[in-house]
């Protein structure tokens, strides 16, 4: 947009910007009406499916409300007692009775409690002297980043972040342009008006074509506390590859590196929050290990093992990272990432190093930024601290008749004409936290909000 002296928009262009913003606001309001309906329906269904919590603390069902967690010995004794019959003329015979509460007990004890609290040891000899990458530039910047992390300059910067008393925690988003900005407005409206959240927000975008001053001023006025940053104009760290791609997947790890927050919750703009996520910062495991990641639906085929020697890591790092994924061992899904920057600033340096070599390097081994965070924990010697939420995602499906577009006919036929619109992600207690619309995004060209038909845990 053309600007007059002093950086203000000319009258004609200012009017056009206001018209555009008004159009976006009206569309966002219509979208929100559909999403409010979805949220209310989703809440009701999930209460029916989960009785609000998997541990039964808010469930009215007698069997759940009074369910106890006996030890294995007590369980065996109780089962034997329940299945024992005795007569005066025959010896006592033990009959094995199925334990109807075994699944619930497993989730409570093995998933939510024991697994997450098991201490894990650091990986020995995780760092290889030489990276397996054939590209010399990659090797050179690996050495540069390692040298910077060991420098006095970095230690002073890290100490200053740890002692910071402002910008304690907040939400980080990558959003801008015609496609992503309306989705961000929907998320912000739900955050501020539905959940009344006071968490500050940072929005990152790339270039003047994705955000103008008038739009950013309107977002600050409507959804503050909120700050915005043009990633293309931020000071770029000299120890990283210059000219690296910032748009797309790399924008998210770059935003986390440049964020002002001590503790950051990165959210994709196509996320629909079911509740104010502020309480997640006080979750015990996050306080202890400083990170939470959420699992994808895939457990195989998304990450090649060759990435570890390629970046100069011992392959034993992979095993240590998998231990943090608990029983389900899924790849990461980076539509939502929680990280304590004051605890893991070195991890974020390595994460950006990996994503700065995105095309024709790291993304040849994995899909986007998703699992670069785990590899970065390995490069920082912290693979034993990497941690997934222990509950795998649920799915939101839409029938082809209501989809509004026709994706891959062959795949749709295999799936019985049902399409995965999004992933339902849970918190550390097994409660629904958010919906990530991985294919059912709402945006200006969509024409209508997706219609969701089935929700599965």
Please bin the fraction of helical residues. Answer: 25-40%
Return the structural class: alpha+beta
Q: Trace the largest sheet across and list its strands.
A: 5-4-3-6-9-8
Amino- and carboxy-terminal Cα gap: 47 Å
Segments where pLDDT lies below 50 for 5+ residues?
Answer: 1-8, 48-90, 452-457
Spell out the helices and strands N to C.
HHHEEHHHEHEHEHEEHEHHEHHEHEEE
The number of strands is 13
C-alpha geometry: globular
Q: Sheet bearing the most strands, described?
A: 6 strands, mixed
Give the helix tally.
15
Rg (CA only)? 25 Å
| Mean of pLDDT | 80
Q: Work out the strand percent.
A: 15-25%
Could you explain how this protein is built, in words?
The chain is an alpha+beta fold. The chain has 15 helices and 13 strands. The protein has helices at 11-50, 62-65, 72-82, 102-117, 136-149, 152-162, 177-194, 213-223, 251-258, 284-289, 307-311, 316-323, 341-356, 372-379, 409-414, and strands spanning 84-87, 90-94, 169-174, 201-205, 226-230, 263-267, 271-273, 291-295, 332-340, 394-399, 418-426, 432-436, 454-456. The strands form 3 sheets. A 6-stranded mixed β-sheet has the order 5-4-3-6-9-8, with helices on both faces. Helix 6 (152-162) packs across helix 13 (341-356), helix 9 (251-258) runs antiparallel to helix 13 and helix 12 packs across helix 14. The protein is globular.
